[in-house]
């Protein structure tokens, strides 16, 4: 029974077919082409030209055509607009002017505008098509709907097509869609399942226009034709790395409302560059014409990509982007966008063949040049003693040059010290005249250069593939979701990362250069930190962390993670400076939950921090035994001290437990601690004091209404907290304000209200104890994360 069902399924699948069989079985007949959004920009610029070319190529094929431009306006106003567009289509050079005029006239006669808004409009269209078929006794070959409309309209239109416009039996239905196909895995799944209600997967043709680029479309054919050269070297033993690069010089002005929601990773890396990556690394199909096998092999690569996280990416944003967002989105001057306009991502494939081979995907706006290419750089173990410019010592590489750049045309280039490639077919030629240009580091004369004899427009190419049912030039649902599965985790992990700001164009200098280190990628140069006022200047500076003023003291602000890293770095810098000067660093730390992330960062970087010469003091302590979870020291011990190599005698917990009792005045714990400070810390001046602020404005354990200023004469005091445990021991302002550096760390949305109030109130120690933090000779810095600062 089981076996029978299985066999039946196999049989059905074979019949249901991958496009291959259908492609062969495609019968000539009448084809109706409908461009929904037929008077829009894309249709005007590319689509009608592409369909005209299709018509010209098919004129003597036995197929007949009608073309419909669909739009929301009435036929009266839509028709003249459509015909203006149609009149502008042009013939290729080799067609004579007379013949061209004739073809254009026929094409215009076969075309008409239709209002396509309601279900009735679609039904009318279907009736019209059927009536025409009947009247002229034509057999129907298929119907092609090109949806050149925003993605949110897809599901609705697909539903209308399914309900009223399916062709007569035996004829095909193809519905073409343009990206964006969602903005993450979940939204792509939702969109796909909505479409699946109305359309079968093989009826959908999702365009990735990169797959229509001649060089991209010929990556697999090139790999197959040159298999005998490539097989031995297409692996981890010979490939140094793979780079897939799309550099643009334009900004995104005018497209901000769209772009700001997507950014370069969703706009370019998730689709175009990922597709190229798959074509370069997938197993070669036995039969290139088998859509099914090509898809399977591609999906295999997707599923072998090692997970991408923050450490596999760097992001940037061109400097004027922020102002463009503020302007086009009608936002205030303090609005920040974290949308990246530049990204470099490092991928690895978890397969024996490519183990450890770095695959870089890079794209950006406002870069120094416009160019797109994929480069396979091979290892070269030759050493040239006398002449390092000898050909065998030069880089060995294959460049799939998609277009633009120094070369200006699409080409496949193979270093002469690799092999002489086989010409793909009669549509390709070898370039013999080498102009004086460099292509990806090598003079043109160092390559064998192949280029298409005739350059095809991408859309014209893709439209001919749609017509031929070549579905592997398009993105299937599985392919789409597999790609989003790779990118979605990275996108979420970058959601709060501040991009590096770059000036744009040639001024970028080496700011966006990256460095690979094992599985990780980082910017090659350190970030220069500048204040927001300087951001407007044209210098090549950039910031990840913003500096400004808060309550007339210095302020540093960033997203939580960067802020904590910056604070940790500042503490380390202070430590190194103090140790250089006096051989020792005295650090006083607060309790509470805010500094936990800081403790973790310090613990992680413990190898480079001079813990051996650091003394750790407590800013305040709760009157509980140190072994209890409530104890500030206990927290500090668990999250930091036990992870670092600090001598025991450099650790100074507060003596809250004396004579078997907690914080009793007569036991003199506060005085003891003060004495220890005076004994060890020069002038009782800590090098660094870390403080937080409570919702009520308290800092250390100095609470509102507790007459904190009366404690001036001592460095340490017992205090009362309004919350349990009530008794505390705390440094006084007298101790805090002697410090050389004081950091006030405030994080989290919950503190935004407090920060807003603090920015307005005058000094008022009774109500807002934190306003008394004023180092006499030292420096106060507020560390506020964006949540606390901006809410
Ligand atoms: C199309 O519509 C019909 C009903 O009109 C429905 O039965 C079918 O499932 C729909 N979807 C597809 C993919 O055919
Ligand atoms: C921008 O916002 C202001 C205030 O909210 C409003 O008055 C104005 O009409 C907006 N302009 C645009 C172009 O949205
Ligand atoms: C101790 O502090 C004083 C100023 O308060 C300073 O002049 C002196 O150099 C310091 N000594 C050491 C060893 O750091």
Kindly report the name of the CATH homologous superfamily of the largest domain. Answer: Dihydrodipicolinate Reductase, domain 2
- Helical content (DSSP H or I, runs of 4+): 25-40%
- Residue-averaged pLDDT: 90
Q: What's the CATH architecture of the largest domain?
A: 2-Layer Sandwich
CATH C-level class of the largest domain is Alpha Beta
> What is the CA-CA span between the terminal residues?
64 Å
Write down the overall geometry: elongated
What's the CATH topology name of the largest domain?
Dihydrodipicolinate Reductase, domain 2
Strand content: 15-25%
- Count of discrete structural domains: 3
* Major sheet size, sense and barrel closure: 10 strands, mixed
If you compute it from the alpha carbons, what radius of gyration comes out, rounded to the nearest whole angstrom?
34 Å
**Tally of contiguous helical segments:** 24
Named once each, the bound ligands are: 2-acetamido-2-deoxy-beta-D-glucopyranose
Give the low-confidence spans.
Answer: 1-25, 528-543
* Order of neighbouring strands in the sheet with most strands: 14-17-13-12-11-7-10-9-8-18
Structural class by SSE content: alpha/beta
Total strands: the figure is 33
GO cellular component, one term: endoplasmic reticulum
Organism: Channa striata
InterPro entries: 6-phosphogluconolactonase_DevB, G6P_DH, G6P_DH_AS, G6P_DH_C, G6P_DH_NAD-bd, Glc/Gal-6P_isomerase, NAD(P)-bd_dom_sf, NagB/RpiA_transferase-like
Pathway: Carbohydrate degradation; pentose phosphate pathway
């Amino acid at each position: 029974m089981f076996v029978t069902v299985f066999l039946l399924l196999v049989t059905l699948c074979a019949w249901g077919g991958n496009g291959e069989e259908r492609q062969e079985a495609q019968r000539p007949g009448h084809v109706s082409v409908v461009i929904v959004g037929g008077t829009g920009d894309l249709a005007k610029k590319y689509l009608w030209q592409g369909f005209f070319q299709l018509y010209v190529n098919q004129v003597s094929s036995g197929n007949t055509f009608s073309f419909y431009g669909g739009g929301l306006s009435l036929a009266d106003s839509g028709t003249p607009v459509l015909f203006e567009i149609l009149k502008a289509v042009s013939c290729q050079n080799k067609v004579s002017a007379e013949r061209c005029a004739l073809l254009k006239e026929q094409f215009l006669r076969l075309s008409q505008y239709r209002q396509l808004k309601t279900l009735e409009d679609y039904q009318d269209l279907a009736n019209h098509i059927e009536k025409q078929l009947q009247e002229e006794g034509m057999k129907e070959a298929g119907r092609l709907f090109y949806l050149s409309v925003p993605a949110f309209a897809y599901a609705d239109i697909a539903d209308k097509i399914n309900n009223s416009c399916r062709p007569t039996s035996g004829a095909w239905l193809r519905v073409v869609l343009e990206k964006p196909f969602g903005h993450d895995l979940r939204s792509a799944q939702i969109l796909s399942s909505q479409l699946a209600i109305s359309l079968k997967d093989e009826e959908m043709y999702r365009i990735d226009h990169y797959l229509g680029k001649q060089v991209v479309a010929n990556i697999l054919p090139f790999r197959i034709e040159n298999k005998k050269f490539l097989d031995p070297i297409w692996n981890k033993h010979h490939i140094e790395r793979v780079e897939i690069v799309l550099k643009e010089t334009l900004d995104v002005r005018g497209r901000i409302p769209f772009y700001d929601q997507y950014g370069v990773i969703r706009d370019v890396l998730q689709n175009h560059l990922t597709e190229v990556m798959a074509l370069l690394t997938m197993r070669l199909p036995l039969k290139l014409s088998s859509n099914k096998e090509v898809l399977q092999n591609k999906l295999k690569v997707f599923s072998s990509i090692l997970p991408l996280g923050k450490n596999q990416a760097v992001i940037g944003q061109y400097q004027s982007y922020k102002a463009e967002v503020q302007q086009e989105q009608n936002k205030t001057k303090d609005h920040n966008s974290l949308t990246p306009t530049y990204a470099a991502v490092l991928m690895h494939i978890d397969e024996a063949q490519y183990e450890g081979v770095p695959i870089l995907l890079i794209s950006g706006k406002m870069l120094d040049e416009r160019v797109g290419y994929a480069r396979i750089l091979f290892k070269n173990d030759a050493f040239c003693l006398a002449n390092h410019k000898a050909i065998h010592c030069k880089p060995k590489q294959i460049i799939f040059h998609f277009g633009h750049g120094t070369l200006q045309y699409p080409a496949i280039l193979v270093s002469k010290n690799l092999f002489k490639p086989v010409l793909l077919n009669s549509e390709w030629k070898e370039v013999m005249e080498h102009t004086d240009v460099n292509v990806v580091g090598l003079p043109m004369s160092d390559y064998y250069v192949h280029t298409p004899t005739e350059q095809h427009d991408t859309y014209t190419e893709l439209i001919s593939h749609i017509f031929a049912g070549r579905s592997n030039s398009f993105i299937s649902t599985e392919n789409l979701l597999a790609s989003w599965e790779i990118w979605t985790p990275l996108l979420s992990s970058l959601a709060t990362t501040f991009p590096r700001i770059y000036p744009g164009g040639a001024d970028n200098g080496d700011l966006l250069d990256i460095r690979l280190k094992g599985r990780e990628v980082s910017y090659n140069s350190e970030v220069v930190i500048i204040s927001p006022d300087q951001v407007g200047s044209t210098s090549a500076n950039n910031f990840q962390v913003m500096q400004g003023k808060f309550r007339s003291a210095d302020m540093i602000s960033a997203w939580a993670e960067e802020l904590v890293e910056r604070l940790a770095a500042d503490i380390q810098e202070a430590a190194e400076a103090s140790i250089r000067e006096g051989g020792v660093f005295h650090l006083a730390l607060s309790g509470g939950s805010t500094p936990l992330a800081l403790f973790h960062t310090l613990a992680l970087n413990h190898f480079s921090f001079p813990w051996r010469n650091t003394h750790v003091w407590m800013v305040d302590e709760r009157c509980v035994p140190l072994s209890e979870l409530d104890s500030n020291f206990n927290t500090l011990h668990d999250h930091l001290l036990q992870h670092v190599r600090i001598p025991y005698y450099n650790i100074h917990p507060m003596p809250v437990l004396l004579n078997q009792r907690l914080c009793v005045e007569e036991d003199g714990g506060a005085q003891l601690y003060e004495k220890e400070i005076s004994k060890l810390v020069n002038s009782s001046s800590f090098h660094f004091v870390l403080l937080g602020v409570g919702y009520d404005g308290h800092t250390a354990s100095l609470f509102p209404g507790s007459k904190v200023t009366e404690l001036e004469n001592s460095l340490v005091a017992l205090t009362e907290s309004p919350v349990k445990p009530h008794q505390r021991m705390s440094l006084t302002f007298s101790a805090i304000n002697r410090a050389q550096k004081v950091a006030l760390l405030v994080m989290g949305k919950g503190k935004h209200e407090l920060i807003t109030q603090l920015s307005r109130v005058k000094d008022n120690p009774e109500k807002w104890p934190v306003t008394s933090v004023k180092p006499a000779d030292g420096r106060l810095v507020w560390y506020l994360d964006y949540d606390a600062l901006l809410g």
